[in-house]
Amino acid sequence: MKIVTTISELKTAVAAARNEGKTVGLVPTMGALHKGHLSLVGRACDECKFVVVSIFVNPTQFNNPDDLRTYPRTLDADVELLTANTRADVVFAPTAQEIYPEPDTRVFELGPIAEVMEGKYRPGHFNGVCQIVSKLFMYVEPDKAYFGEKDFQQLAIIRKMVSDLKFNIEIVPCPIVREESGLAVSSRNVLLTEASRKIAPLIHKALKASVTLMTDHTPKETANWVVGQLNSTKGFEVEYYDIVDGNTLQTITSWNETNYVVGCITVYAGKVRLIDNITYKK
Fold first, then answer.
1. Is residue 270 classed exposed, middle or buried when 0-12, 13-18 and 19+ CB atoms within 10 A define those classes?
2. Using one digit for the tens of pLDDT, what is the confidence trace for 192-217?
3. Superfamily in which the 187-281 domain is placed by CATH
4. Strands 272-281, 261-269: parallel, antiparallel or unpaired by DSSP?
5. CB 96 within 8 A of CB 59
6. b or e along 61-77 (b: 16 or more beta carbons within 10 Å of the residue's beta carbon)?
7. Residue 250 has what DSSP assignment?
8. CATH 3.40.50.620 spans which residues of the chain?
């Protein structure tokens, strides 16, 4: 596995693979890798002959300076994990100066799917995501790019960006990986206190339990039940829970509005912001 830090090195490595007729897969990450990331890389390695993993904490998608400052950075451990558990070919670990030698002023017109949920609470976040992912797509020009379904809204937005910008790239969604407790694995989990880690699995437990309410509760009643369950737990504060059309990400009022229904949640466990989701219908 080769570690490169410049765009030119990255392009050279990809070009060599292309010259050998290899299909190219890309797994964009912000590092602090865990078994969720490894599942993405593993899927990429199964489906592509040449795999690039990017590790870059992208400053333009953080609207909270403290969140950017405290985001875990563990490059050496990440490389060790990839080497031991995958056959990834290249790790692209650039500096911010390499990616943004001057400010990226591009504004992406993402429409209603970017205005709800994370878009509402983290203004500018998805524009920053599109800035970095579009750059990676231009550098690598992958055949396939792999993203986790835990970041459900992000996945929808990247698909829209790919369509709008006419990238010839297949976006491959990968299932949420969970700890034995049910907690969705996340780089942020390492920031949980012992007390917060004990209660964090209750998020997924409440989401799973809420599926049984579909028969005699409206989506709004179901969402209110989930919020009530979690907010009654000391140490939790729900930021939002929206039950939405899985394609448009707009809140639904009836289970019959669409055949694809997903519930998306963000909860503060102490000071750590955790996201998760569950599919009610698909």
1. middle
2. 999 999 999 999 999 999 999 999 99
3. Pantoate-beta-alanine ligase, C-terminal domain (3.30.1300.10)
4. antiparallel
5. yes
6. bbeeeeeeeebbeeeee
7. P
8. 2-174
User: Where do we find the tokens 């490894």?
Assistant: 38
Q: How far is CA 112 from CA 134, 247, 249, in A?
A: 20, 11, 8
Straight-line distance from the first to the last Cα atom of the chain, in angstroms, rounded to the nearest whole number = 38
Residue 267, both tokens: 């909860």
d(CA 276, CA 150): 6
- How far apart CA 21 and CA 50 sit, in angstroms, is 10
Show the DSSP H helices in the chain as ranges. Answer: 7-19, 35-47, 65-70, 75-85, 96-99, 118-121, 125-140, 152-165, 194-199, 202-210, 219-231
Encode pLDDT of 113-163 as tens digits: 999 999 999 999 999 999 999 999 999 999 999 999 999 999 999 999 999
Picking from 204, 98, 113, 182, the residue whose alpha carbon sits closest to that of residue 152 is 113
Secondary structure of 94-158 as H, E, C letters:
CCHHHHCCCCCCCCCCCHHHHCCCHHHHCCCHHHHHHHHHHHHHHHHCCCEEEEECCCHHHHHHH
Sign of the Cα pseudo-torsion (87, 44, 9, 19, in order)? positive
Cβ proximity of 94 and 3 under 8 Å? no
Bridge partners, residue 146, by sequence = 172
Indicate the fold that domain 2-174 takes in CATH.
Rossmann fold (3.40.50)
Residues marked as catalytic: 37
Q: Alpha-carbon torsion 155, 186, 202, 174, what sign?
A: positive
Q: Specify the pairing of strand 236-245 against strand 170-174.
A: unpaired
Looking at the chain, the domain(s) classified CATH 3.30.1300.10 span 187-281
The pLDDT of residue 63 is above 90: no
In eight-state DSSP terms, residue 78 is H
